[in-house]
Fold each of these.
Amino acid sequence: MKKIVLLFATLLLSATSMAQVVITEPVLSEPQSAEAQPAAPRLTIKERLARPAQVDSLTVVNETVVVQENGDAAAIVSGNLNQEPKAIGGYRIVIFMNNSQSARRDAVAAQESFSQLFPEEQSYLSYENPYFKVTVGNCTSQDEAIILLGRLRGTFPKAFIVRENIAIGEFAR
């Protein structure tokens, strides 16, 4: 079981390419012959896995795993573990979406008219190739987005709901 866990950890860490894993051979408690045996060449994990297991009755005394970090792997891992999410899943209403030659000018006009009619709601102008898009609202639930959509339907009849990742700072506005 211990070897399976070590093998899994080795494969997981080596797959990230941010860490290099070196497994030292375990010290086995079998009788040593009087003659000095030549040192066996170190095998890679692939080569060890390809060999059939030929263990009769050996007791593992000591097994060591050494992890050598390359680059900034430790900083990335430690920094991401204690951070809160920077964005959460939410909903917004698209009031304008177009890719015509005058799309930018029309998007700015739609955003300005929305800001005049609904000053309490936030609006966002974005460009997602090839569309200019104006979205409004910071809704945490679909029900909240449906209510906002109902308020906007009279002015913006083509408006529709989309799921977006909303930065947490947007909710404070």
Note: Confidence is low (pLDDT under 50) at residues 15-21.
Amino acid sequence: MADKSTADIGFEKQIWDAACVLRGNMDASEYKNVVLGLIFLKYISDRFDDKYQELVKEGDGFEEDIDEYTSEGIFFVPAGARWSEIAAKAHTPEIGTVIDDAMRAIEKENKRLKDIFYAQAE
């Protein structure tokens, strides 16, 4: 019996084709910025959510206190910009606007992100 390596598992072409459909007419060099932005958004939202759940368990009512997050190097994610909110709207035509609004809201709440997300677009 021949060993089957993970480099040849048969679905690479389907994954690549799906990524191309999602990319649409956007140039690949621009698409990478979109994907990296989404990865960053998901990451900070997950970190925020972990801390949020911890604060809820403590029961002191500080789960919406920005200082509880920034003191630990965690970005504060406002309610409308949290991943659960974005994911709930993922299949709507306005998902691009939802993501842009989320990024702007996060940038507004976190001074160290000022002019980071949209400075390159100008």
Note: The CA atoms of residues 76 and 109 lie 7 Å apart.
